[in-house]
Amino acid sequence: MSFKFRTQVSKADCDGLKQFIRSRQVDYCQKALEANWSAQGLPVVLQRNTYDIYFELVHCHCDFRAPIKVNDTLDIHVSLFKHDHHSLVYDFSLERDGKVVGATLSIHRSHSVKTNEVCGIHPELIEKILA
Predict the structure, then answer these.
(1) Which helix (H) or strand (E) element contains residue 37?
(2) Which of 38, 81, 106, 124 could form a disulfide with 60 if both were Cys (CB 3.0 to 4.6 A apart)?
(3) Is the CB of residue 87 less than 8 Å from the CB of residue 107?
(4) Structurally, how many domains does the chain consist of?
């Protein structure tokens, strides 16, 4: 299932030529992911049994397909690509006027807030994320 997040490129995220600073693509995707979780009623830090877990971004890959400029409206499509016991892999498609201008694949690993160690993702949580 895909979630759509709409945002406008701000001047602060562009260089002197009003071109989108591509390193900000990861930030825009993270905002879209957080909006996706909020829409599902999931906070960014999740309660699991007696301790909290969070998902740390451990890897991402970005493709840049067309220029993005200040004030462009982007639709960022978020979908869970795959998951395992410790990780969630998300696929993001950035579109302007219905055309893909960028893509990002990100891997997020679950960690305990208390111990900061990698921990498992409860199956019920995976079900909520997939809903």
Answers:
(1) helix 25-39
(2) 106
(3) yes
(4) 1
Residue in the structure block whose two tokens are 């992911």: 33
Contact 104, 59 (CB under 8 A): no
Q: Would you give per-residue pLDDT tens digits along the chain (131 residues)? A: 689 999 999 999 999 888 888 889 999 999 999 999 888 888 766 655 444 788 889 999 999 999 999 999 999 999 999 999 999 999 999 999 999 999 999 999 998 888 889 988 878 788 888 87
Q: Are 60 and 126 in contact (CB under 8 A)?
A: no
Strands of 46-48's sheet in order across: 2-8, 73-83, 87-96, 99-112, 51-64, 46-48
Q: What is the pTM of this model?
A: 0.88
CA 117 to chain CA centroid, Å, is: 21
Contact 40, 129 (CB under 8 A): yes
CATH code where residue 51 lies: 3.10.129.10
